[in-house]
Amino acid sequence: MSNPSRLHVPEPPARPGQPPDFSYLQLSPAGALPRPETGASWREVGSLAFGLIRVLDDSHRAVGAWDPHIAPENLRLGLRHMLLTRLFDDRMVRHQRQGKLSFYMKSTGEEAVSVAAGMALEPGDMLFPAYRNQGLQVVRGRRLVDLMCQLLSNTGDMCRGRQLPVMYHSAPAKLFSISGNLATQLPQAVGWAMAAAIKGEEHIASTWTGEGSSAEADFHYALLFASVYRAPVLINVVNNQWAISTFQGTAGGEQNSFAARGPAYGMPGLRVDGNDFLAVYAATRWAADRARNGGGATVVELVTYRAGAHSTSDDPARYRPRDEPEHWPLGDPIERLKLHLMGLGEWSEARHQELSAELDAQVSAEWKEALTFGTMSDGPRLNRDLMFEDVFKELPEHLRRQRELLRAELAGSP
Amino acid sequence: MAQMNMIQALNSAMDVAMGRDPNVVILGQDVGFFGGVFRCTDGLQRKYGEHRVLDTPIAEGGIIGAALGMGVNGLRPVAEVQFADYVYPAYDQIVSELARLRYRSAGDFHAPVTVRMPCGGGIRGGQTHSQSPEVLFAHVCGLKVAIPSNPYDAKGLLIGAIEDDDPVILLEPKRLYNGPFDGDPNKPAVSWGTHPKGEVPVEHYTVPFGRAEVVRAGTQMTIIAYGTMVHVVAAAAQAMGFDAEIIDVRSIVPLDVDTLCNSVCKTGRCVIAHEATRFAGFGAELAATVMENCFWNLEAPIQRVAGWDTPYPHAFEWEYFPGQTRVSLALKAVMEPA
């Protein structure tokens, strides 16, 4: 009997024109999964890599062992951060469409992934974000005007005009410089955490990557080093289902969860409802406590959905059903936290509208301020001499010469 | 002063640097308990502990990525890549990350990482243990790149690299680890004990980056070389009876243009020698630099001596290696242009 092998090419459940289908998603009811002690061995917590840690149930109540019991004022702060992130994103996309920005990447639908995790970590923890983690910048108190100046590559740009929009950083806020080369930050975060352990410091590192980029060798280096040296680090895989046009199955998500890569390396893997603010917060806190107490690294898969385009350079209707976002079974993180707070009697539609208007006005005011530092077409511009700085700590002779050549070129001398 | 071969000199450099600065750490494959496959880190784990001399998985990209993160967190990592031929899995971390972190973050982040790697042929290493990839790093903005030709420079450059706040690639010609090599594999091996640059201070010193060394003053021609080829060209010039000025580049980034070009302007003739493949090799950059600066002083076309543009074959190692014959032909050609 012959049974020749056939090449298996993973196909997404639906392409444009087909009905959206999320039946492939393994879901667990809210509150269903146990919350082990943070010191438990990775073998004891193995099932958490396959179920889905959820706290908010279908009627938006917090249930089960993973409920982090966050005070209402902190929940409102989380809501505020998420809403600000979304309004900022929406406005920046609009400005890109108007030709005021070259490029933008929004995080719509994924706000809880960054905001809840950012709030669950300590201010001294070092964050190594990917390019869709703007919520971390917001949580860490970065002013929008600073982010906007980066987007505009203007005189207020913390990168001095060297990076594509959204590749922010802040040394004082402990937000590492974002790279356009994917997943490179993962082994770097592990190395940072190893150094913290070598020096006996209490701070931990946390890093994020998309499920698509988990295919990079750097992801596997990071997990291996994190496991081998029990580095105090959180490795977050934001599984937003889509890597531009390629669905998560092509990154390996069809056969197993991304969280399951944790136990494969001898570390816990937590598969978490990434649109459930409370679940993300609780899972992050669990993994952070574990790392802080010498338990080493955890892989956290945040199951979420990229509700918008990958970037301003692609149209999702070309590769997935136009109405797919509406069928996403885990809802919207802002809406869910809002309804949870309202259920607690700690929030109202009116207050939400009021907050929305306030934050929208803040975005407008900060955009106006950012423009005073220059735009892509007019206003103050960065000094061209800056191009040659920071290649090395000291300006070397050959760059000094090239700077002179550019000056002459700009002066129009033949 | 002590007699040291290049391995001992490199070991001494790391020992001195670790003794002075508790933030200096070493990581790489087999560097800890075993002391490295070439013994460069021998005894350092015993002396400084396993937190400071880390054996790593076989994962060059992980080694450099982790070293970068350690550097951001205040350490001064010295990463060993077991052979330069193995560096390619780490190339993205070196090129896209290590080299450009300071630039992309406008100076707010940097990682003072030193990457050591044995390079070059002449040890029967075949095509996966003989490469000289220096130009792949020289072409990347933000890296300093050095190749010592002797124990004294090796130690001084390595201490300087470790203390430098910029990332440094140190390529160590492994054929020179145990002694100078003039390109003739049939001669008995010579130890560094016979060479003045085998005299190495036991204490701290640095050899500055961006400074070439005139290892022999001469009048008839300038020979520019680095690494193993410094010894090969010296032997060839002597055998041919030419009064050659021989310059050891030592640091290819930054490049000491003045020393090279002052010499060529004086002698009017230039031969460039490296072990790496010829096409788009670092010799091309050197030749262009010399041409731009010395054109009106040149008496003859610049000659390049290099490895052939093939992988480094196991069976034809000495036909591949740019030995004294190939050098001699270039010396002759530069003296008697056709």
If you had to describe this structure to a student in words, what would you say it looks like?
The complex is a heterodimer of chains A (414) and B (338). Chain A has helices at residues 72-97, 111-120, 134-139, 144-152, 185-199, 217-228, 261-264, 277-292, 333-343, 349-371, 397-411; strands spanning 126-128, 205-210, 233-239, 242-243, 246-247, 269-273, 298-303. Chain A has 414 residues and is an alpha/beta fold. In chain A, the strands form 2 sheets. Chain A has a 5-stranded parallel β-sheet with strand order 1-2-3-7-6, sandwiched between helices. A two-stranded antiparallel sheet of chain A has the order 4-5. The mean pLDDT of chain A is 97. Chain B has 12 helices and 14 strands. Chain B has helices spanning 6-20, 44-48, 60-72, 91-98, 101-104, 134-138, 151-163, 228-240, 257-267, 282-294, 317-320, 324-335, and strands at 2-3, 24-28, 53-55, 76-80, 114-119, 144-146, 168-173, 199-200, 213-216, 221-225, 244-248, 251-253, 270-277, 303-307. At the A-B interface, helix 5 and helix 6 of A face helix 3, helix 4 and helix 5 of B.
